[in-house]
Amino acid sequence: MSIYSQPFLIHKTNEKIKIDGDLTDWKTPFLGPFVVHNTGEKATQNTFVSLAWDNKNLYLAYKCSDTKIIGTAQIKDSQIFNTDDLAEIFLDPDGDSQNYIEIGVNAFSTNYDLLLKCISEECGGWKTSMDFDFTGLESVSKINKDGYIVEIKIPFSSLEKVKNGGFTKPKIGTKWKGNAFRIDYGNTTEYLALQPYKSLNFGFHQPKEFAVFEFVK
Question: For a 10 Å CB count at each end of the chain, is N or C smaller?
Answer without folding.
Answer: C
